[in-house]
């Protein structure tokens, strides 16, 4: 018997651990462990927990067709989950446990604990790199060092793609069923989570639906990606991030379909090449977090980031979370996040810049809040995005380049279509005034059920420059 431990790789297709476990002609059983206390400490969004649960229900049926039962158990945290898997493997007489690696600190520790617990019971542990296009530590500079800057990393990835077989793995062959597997099937209980979950019926959770979404996007929308991806009113990005985050889809499946549909995927400036760049950003942040365990402990990548003296005003933080800052593009974005669990990338950059540079609030507060809401929450991408926005990460936005939330809104939602969708209180404000509605309301003696700006951008900008400058001039200790 072989046991496959599913984590953030909730797919039956193109799953390396599952394929490896299925190579021998032995029965295969799958297991997933809900870890509510660990998830709470990681601020897992109930939306994402809902997607995980829905996906497990679908995966269970998909694997059933292969005669592979999927057992769902509960343990408080990662440490107990490692013990639970070892005990379960022992109980069903598994010769080996197969899993795909996760590179964050707690996850790596959990896997080491599992390896040891299994070894004590004489059970083998096989772990595979399957989360990214390129496993961490495989793309290195000429000096053999990991990259800290995206563009050379991307170029090296593109070179490595030459001659690489990126074709996704097929489904494992249907297993023979025996009495032990039969017994496991008959004991399967409906999946119930202790962790809070939210409705995700707007999102497909079955393999067929997820693949159809990805294929449709590659066929019909990728060509326009570069031109349209920055405008949140247009649904021009793939919205595949929730699936990539929980591994319901692999980046290799995306790459293979992209290459099939777009012969120009290598040509710079095409939609296809730009979309591939984004998949490589995902790899880049996984690489950064795998290479720098201090990041998992919430340290800034740049040592001086620890010296920034944040204002951390609680009232302003609450206004930001609730989408009540008086800056329409920021507020509309936060409403999109709070109501759907997803936010457009341009808006993530705008609201993160606003929190850190206009409200002078520690980026880690924003990072945690995003995780608690995002259906696509992914530690490495989220942390990378926040550190970039706060100017303290690898390849970060320079601290003196501060987004102006009003001009960002004018540029990327010029007619206010996106803002009106999420802020009905601004429906009657004419397009050219939508980004500064109070100027219009005061001028025409109108009332608005909408807050006045909670800060003055020009004043805050000056303050932010001073705070960041001072932090950079502090004597620095190396980040641990
Ligand atoms: C402050 C901040 C926080 C973020 N938090 C997350 C997060 O928790 N989870 C997450 O998946 N992404 C995060 N991102 C990155 C990005 O915003 C989302 O991946 C993207 O908006 C998802 O939408 P999409 O699937 O339509 O992307 P597309 O534009 O269609 O891109 C395709 C895929 O590439 C990957 N990708 C795209 N942009 C990035 C990026 N900048 N960094 C890393 N991967 C990228 C995603 O997996 C995405 O699904 C964050 C960005 C910022 C600035």
Automatic annotation (TrEMBL):
Cofactor(s) listed: (6R)-5,10-methylene-5,6,7,8-tetrahydrofolate; FAD
SUPFAM superfamilies: Cryptochrome/photolyase FAD-binding domain, Cryptochrome/photolyase, N-terminal domain
Domain Photolyase/cryptochrome alpha/beta: 1-133
Highest taxon listed in the record's lineage: Bacteria
Pfam family, one: DNA_photolyase
Keyword Flavoprotein: yes
Keywords, ordered alphabetically: Chromophore, FAD, Flavoprotein
Family membership noted in the UniProt record: Belongs to the DNA photolyase family. Belongs to the DNA photolyase class-1 family.
PANTHER family, alphabetized: CRYPTOCHROME, CRYPTOCHROME CIRCADIAN CLOCK 5 ISOFORM X1
Protein name: Deoxyribodipyrimidine photo-lyase
Species, as recorded: Salinivibrio siamensis
């Amino acid at each position: 018997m072989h046991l496959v431990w599913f984590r953030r790789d909730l797919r039956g297709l193109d799953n390396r651990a599952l394929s490896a476990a299925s190579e021998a002609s032995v029965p295969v059983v799958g297991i997933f462990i809900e870890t509510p206390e660990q998830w709470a400490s990681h601020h897992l969004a109930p939306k994402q927990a809902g997607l995980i649960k829905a996906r497990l229900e679908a995966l269970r049926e998909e694997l059933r067709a292969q005669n592979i039962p999927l057992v769902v158990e509960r343990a408080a945290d990662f440490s107990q989950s490692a013990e639970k898997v070892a005990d379960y493997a022992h109980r069903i007489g598994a010769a080996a446990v197969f899993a795909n690696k996760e590179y964050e600190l707690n996850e790596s520790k959990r896997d080491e604990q599992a390896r040891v617990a299994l070894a004590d019971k004489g059970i083998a542990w096989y772990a595979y790199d399957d989360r990214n296009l390129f496993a961490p530590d495989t793309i290195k500079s000429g000096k053999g060092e990991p990259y800290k800057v995206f563009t050379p990393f991307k170029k090296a990835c593109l070179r490595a793609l030459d001659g690489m077989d990126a074709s996704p793995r097929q489904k494992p062959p249907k297993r023979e069923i025996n009495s032990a597997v039969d017994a496991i099937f008959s004991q399967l209980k409906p999946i119930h989570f202790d962790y809070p979950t939210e409705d995700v019926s707007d999102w497909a959770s079955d393999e067929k639906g997820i693949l159809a979404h990805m294929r449709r996007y590659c066929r019909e929308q990728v060509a326009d990606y570069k031109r349209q991806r920055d405008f949140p009113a247009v649904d021009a990005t793939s919205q595949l991030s929730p699936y990539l985050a929980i591994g319901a889809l692999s980046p290799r499946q995306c790459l293979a379909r992209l290459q099939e549909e777009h012969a120009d995927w290598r040509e710079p400036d095409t939609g296809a090449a730009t979309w591939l760049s984004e998949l490589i950003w995902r790899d880049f942040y996984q690489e950064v977090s795998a290479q720098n365990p201090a990041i998992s402990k919430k340290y800034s990548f740049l040592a001086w980031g620890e010296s920034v003296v944040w204002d951390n005003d609680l009232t302003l933080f609450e206004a930001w979370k609730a989408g009540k800052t008086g800056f329409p593009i920021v507020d509309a974005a936060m409403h999109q996040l709070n109501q759907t669990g997803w936010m457009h990338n341009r808006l993530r950059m705008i609201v993160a810049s606003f929190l850190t540079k206009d409200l002078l609030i520690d980026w880690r507060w924003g990072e945690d809040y995003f995780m608690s809401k995002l259906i696509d929450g992914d530690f490495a991408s989220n942390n990378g995005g926040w550190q970039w926005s706060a100017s303290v990460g690898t390849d970060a936005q320079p601290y003196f380049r501060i987004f102006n939330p009003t001009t960002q809104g004018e540029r990327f939602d010029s007619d206010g279509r996106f803002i009106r969708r999420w802020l009905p209180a601004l429906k009657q404000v004419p397009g050219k005034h939508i980004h500064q509605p109070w100027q219009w309301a005061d001028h025409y003696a109108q009332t608005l059920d909408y807050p006045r700006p909670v800060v003055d951008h020009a004043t805050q900008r000056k303050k932010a420059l001073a705070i960041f400058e001072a932090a950079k001039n502090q004597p620095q200790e190396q980040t641990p």
